[in-house]
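sorry for the late reply, my laptop died twice this morning and i had to redo everyting from scratch. anyway the thing you sent over, i finally got around to it. pasting the sequence first so we're on the same page, its 310 residues, then the predicted structure underneath. double check i copied it right bc i was rushing
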Amino acid sequence: MIDRRTLVKASGAAIATHLFAANPARYTVGCTTNTIGGWEKDMFQSFREARQVGYRYVETFVHYFVELGLYDKPREVIKRMDEIGVQFVTISNGAPMESRFEDPSRHSQIYEDHLKLVRFIRNFGCDHLKINMGRRRPEGTTDEDLKHMADALQELGRRIRREGIRFGVHAHMWSQFENRREIEYVMSHTDPRDVGFVLDTGHISMAGIDPVELARTLGHRVVEFHMKDVKPENRGGAKTRLAKMDGMNDPCFFPLGSGGVDFVGLKNYLDSIQWKGFLTVELDTSPWRPPKDSAAISRTYLESTLQIKV
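ok and here's the structure:
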């Protein structure tokens, strides 16, 4: 594992070191650790438990650092991470950052907030930034919204590329960027050099899309996969849109191996194009067992079925 203490100069500026330099494997497995049901309140405890299960890379959200007073203290974060024995996949955007990309009056604040986050994650050697859009409005996403979103993503992506890392936008149910129409518009109205895609197998399935087919369509434009499963009846894409999820009573996302996502087909395709990057296990909620146990189920599936070493 890279000694991340070497990633920060005496001045506190980041050295943009690519994590994969010390990891020749094409697939690097991570774990998103804000799972509701036990991991959502104590970020460092979630990191410790993910490490106990065997994960060496973790992903989380910026609000934890803001709440803990650590958003301007990368050295302290690095010290805590070293003690636990994990590194970051990336750190996602979110409140209190501005994320209404469809509103041009907020674009200046979006650029400022997200470039601050980029410069924060560079301290940890992260090679890409993953972002979500704002919460979906009742009227959905209009054609005008899509134009404003694509314009803002293109400009932000251009600035992020100048910072030396990649940029990926995450299609997420119940956000302003959710379905096939919205994905196709944004991808066709932005430069692949500047704007990549984070393909979440669970959210893509629930949006009515086959995640394997979408991976084939986007290819190397995918900068990271979020790996979660869905019910078998949603295999190949849900037939009806779920208006909302009651994650602790009636979840739609599950540990890997539940049968709704063709992970074998996905890996076969990624093998065929020599795709390289992070496969990040994620579970929004874990209502029936501790998140640590759900993460262990996914690890077993990755190693025993997909033959990917965690």
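The domain at 21-304 is CATH 3.20.20.150 (TIM Barrel).
thats about all i looked at so far, will dig more tmrw
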